Structure formats: structure tokens, C-alpha cells
Amino acid sequence: MFVNIPKEKTKKKKTNQNNSGKVSPTTVDIDMNWRQSLGQRFNWGGIVEVLGGGGGAERGSLAIPHLSVPDIRWIDWKELERLGFRGVVFDKDNTLTAPYSLSLWPSLSHSLRQCLLVFPGRVAIFSNSAGLYEYDPDGSHAKALEESIGGVHVIRHGIKKPAGSAEDIEKYFGYAASHVIMVGDRHFTDIIYGNRNGLLTILTEPLSLSEDPFIIQQVRKLETYLVTRWHQQGLKPPNHSLLQENMQCIKAPDL
């Protein structure tokens, strides 16, 4: 069930210039961060995973989440723990924070606290930005994110979603991937990765589309179009042993 919830607006960064009209180092850093972030979030691997090698429609089931919610406030963490799940791994950008931000989206703080209470020491972030060796080789971004969002560990890893195994996740949690929940906003990264590796997958709506580069907005439209078509064709996500069809893990949020 989807409900339209007003989204908070994030502020744009302003370009700084000195008296000579030259762009300041801060602006250069912002430009480099933007180009780096584009590489983090525009991932051909997800498209190839679904459409490459034939059988696109059949492979499309990997892009379909087990559950879909407007944001994490709609997730019933206690019910998921009762069903046997033992840990939660979040995407970062547009799931917990605005894109390229280290700060938790304000309205999600209560739900994240509830998640931490239900899964103490078993909540982490698995991102294509913070913690990914390609873009965060010294782990400084991951450390800053951990300090900003207290109680949540950032898992370091070497391969961008949707590629790669769940080895790093299983090592951190100490449980098989089938006992871990993957929460993210992208069909072709978070959901494909989770379904490929046997996690329960929960799709959230993006927190702030205005911060996405134009090309990412177009990729989102492609994802939505394809997944909608596959739904119409009757495709379903992979079966998950801990989640029965009629189980209710979605609740109205505490606004």
C-alpha cells in the first residue's frame, strides 16, 4: 500500500567564487564529488543483470521487491524480527539520507531508533558510496557516516551492487543472508542485489528526486517502466522461506 507523504526539501549547495572570478577549491571539490557520485549511482551492472543474456522478463523477477513502502516508517520491525529475521542492511542515498549527504533524513529518526532497538548491534549500511573501496579507499566517508548516524555500522566492501556476493554482510551479522533484510530505493541495484543473494528485499520511494542528476532520473524511469511491465506480466519476486504471502510486515507510520 502506498500513501503520498510530503517530502522535505533539501538545500542546494551554492557555487563559491573569489574576487578574481575564479572558482574556489570548495566548488572544485563539489564538482569532483558530483562526478564520483554519478559513477556510484549509475550502475550498468543492474541493467545487464536483468536484460543481458536473454530471458529478460524471467530475470526481471530479481528486480521485484518482496515488500514496497513509501519509506522506512512503514516497516514493522517487530513483526520482521518475530518472523525470524536477525539483521537489517540499508542502502544510504535516498533511503536514509538525501543523496550525497551524511545526515539522516529527519522524519526517519524515530523509525531508525525502533529498528536499532529491535535489532541491537545488527543494523548496517551497505552502500555504493560510503564503504565501497573504489570511492572510499581509506574508509573516511564510512567513518563520518557512522559518526553522523549513531549506532549504524557501514560495511566495507569491494564490489558495487548488484554484483557481488553477500559474504561481507554474512560475516558482519553472523547469520545467513536469508535472515537479513535489504532496504533500498533502487530496483536495479539494491533489490537485484538482495534477491540474487537470498535477502528479504524492501523497496522504499526515493527521499529526494531533486538531488538526482538528470541521467539517474532517466534510469529510474526505465526501472519503473520495466518493473511495472513485469508486474503486469505476473512476475513475482523470488520466494523467501521466512515470509509467507499473507504475512503483514507493513504498518501505518507514527507521524
Automatic annotation (TrEMBL):
InterPro entries linked to this entry: HAD-like_sf, HAD-SF_hydro_IIIA, HAD_sf, PGP_Pase, PGPP1/Gep4
Region listing for Disordered, in residue ranges: 1-26
Segments of skewed composition (Polar residues): 16-26
Protein name, per record: Uncharacterized protein
GO CC, one annotated term: cytoplasm
Molecular functions per Gene Ontology: phosphatidylglycerophosphatase activity
Superkingdom classification of source: Eukaryota
Any one Pfam family match given in the protein's UniProt record, by short name: PGP_phosphatase
Origin species: Acorus calamus
